[in-house]
């Protein structure tokens, strides 16, 4: 897609492939975007204007090398984002959501599967630049074989962004000894009157769950597949 600006107003749109693209979500509108694929090296910029709501979903099944996504949320606007990642090889995603005016809010939900020799990094950051802003970030991953998966990013609340709330979770399930998984969420807080939390969990598959399923007649491979699907299902839906 060419690098142009498209204005959206109360509509559902499917985008087959993102390359260099910019969208404006019109004031007081409600828009749903489905991004079906991400190009090798691509950028997506979005402005969510006052009182607008954007629901955006990404489905990535191919190698995209590098993807940069920047969203600016204005007064009382909302962005709800879902990213289902089944891409391959070496990928880096740089996600930035700026809550630039009072009452802006966002939700980010990521599910990523890293297998074989994949090397993936997702850097997801939210910046609270005004009072009464809200953010919730959930990054879930499964890492298997000799793959690497990294979740990083910053939740930042600047000075004078009082009464803002930010919450960040990063969880990765590790299947094999050669798997390399890292979760490193960061909080940067310059204001006292706020609410903030972050959590990071990296751990192997639960042996008791695996034993229970195999004792009911499933093979180990089938049990792992079922556990993986259950782990990622909330975001895949």
Mean pLDDT figure: 92
Q: Based on CA inertia axes, which overall geometry fits?
A: globular
If helices are DSSP runs of H or I spanning 4 or more residues, what is the number of helices? 2
β-strand number: 16
Rounded radius of gyration (Å): 19 Å
Oligomeric description of these chains: single chain
Indicate the structural class. Answer: mainly beta
Task: Profile the largest sheet.
Answer: 8 strands, parallel
Contiguous uncertain segments of 5+ residues: none
Strand order of the largest sheet: 1-3-5-7-9-11-13-15
Fraction of helical residues: 10-25%
How far apart lie the N and C ends? 27 Å
The SSE string, one letter per element, is: EEEEEEEEEEEEEEEEHH
Strand content: over 45%
What does this structure look like?
- It contains two helices and 16 strands.
- With 237 residues, it is mainly β.
- The strands form two sheets. It has an eight-stranded parallel beta sheet with strand order 1-3-5-7-9-11-13-15, with no helix packed on it. Strands 2-4-6-8-10-12-14-16 form an eight-stranded parallel beta sheet, with helices on one face.
Secondary-structure map:
Elements: E1 5-8, E2 12-15, E3 18-25, E4 30-35, E5 38-48, E6 53-60, E7 66-73, E8 78-85, E9 90-99, E10 105-114, E11 119-128, E12 134-143, E13 148-157, E14 164-174, E15 180-189, E16 194-204, H1 207-215, H2 220-236
Parallel strand pairs: 1-3, 2-4, 3-5, 4-6, 5-7, 6-8, 7-9, 8-10, 9-11, 10-12, 11-13, 12-14, 13-15, 14-16
